[in-house]
Amino acid sequence: MNCEDVKPLLNARMDGEIDSSQNAALDSHLASCSSCAADLERLQGVRTAIREGMRYYKAPDVFRNQLRFALRGADYLDRPKPRPQWKMFASVAAVFAFCLLTSSLFLMNQRNRRALMAEEFLSAHQRALIGREIDVVSSDQHTVKPWFNGKLPFSPPVTDLAADGFPLEGGRLDYIGGNPVAALVYRPRLHRIDVFVRPVVGQSAPVPTERNGFREISWTKGDFLFTAVSDLNAGELSTFSGLLQTR
Questions:
Q1: Other residues' Cβ atoms within 10 Å of the Cβ of residue 144
Q2: Within 10 Å of residue 43's Cβ, how many Cβ atoms?
């Protein structure tokens, strides 16, 4: 088992989705490959950070009361005996209230997950600024794009915007939500822009976030979801994203 075989299985290993024979083969490879072992350690660190940073919300008492009322209404609906028409209307209203409550909680949870992902992108950008910024250093998009072959389960689009004042500096492999993503690095003047690229299928855009002078903006183009993070002002970052969307 080589590195190309191992890397796609690291997430499955953490989720307990591989059998004992694959586990044994992975353990054997990880014992002799520091690169793959470091990738697994990074994945475990990201998962730990997500779990520790996850926010939990207690439902207000009014939701609990609505839920009890809805369950009592459902019990009435299940009874075969005739009942007054006003009780039927009350039961239907209770079921409607329960559905509305469930939808509200689902939407709240979706927004929380998008906010957590936004924090991950900001953290990944800040970590890169003080650590491993670039894996492949090149202003040639035809050098950067092939570098990701075999390292990602997709081929990210790479565009150089040097003529517009946003030169490509290179790229690196990063992890968001425990999944590998392409990070394209641009350097306008003394600033740094990280553009994280991943397939749009099964993904949701993070909530637009600004923290400690850093801001991010997301958009979709074709089959990919892009998230740009930088300390540029909002206008310049918007101009940059507009250029990438039209090239």
A1: 26
A2: 18
- Structural domain tally of the chain? 2
Strand segments, DSSP code E, in the chain are: 136-137, 168-176, 179-186, 193-199, 210-211, 214-221, 224-230
Residues paired with 196 in a beta bridge: 183, 227
Number of H helices, E strands in the chain: 8, 7
CATH number of domain containing 215: 3.30.200.100
Q: Report the phi/psi class of residue 178: left, alpha or beta, with left for phi > 0 and alpha for psi in -120 to 50.
A: left
Q: Which residues contact 87 (CB under 8 A, 6 or more apart)?
A: 76
Question: What are the pLDDT digits (tens) for 93-145?
Answer: 666 555 555 545 444 455 566 677 778 888 888 888 887 789 999 999 999 99
**0.90 exceeded by pTM:** no
Residue type at 209 in one-letter notation: T
Alpha carbon distance 99, 184 (integer Å): 43
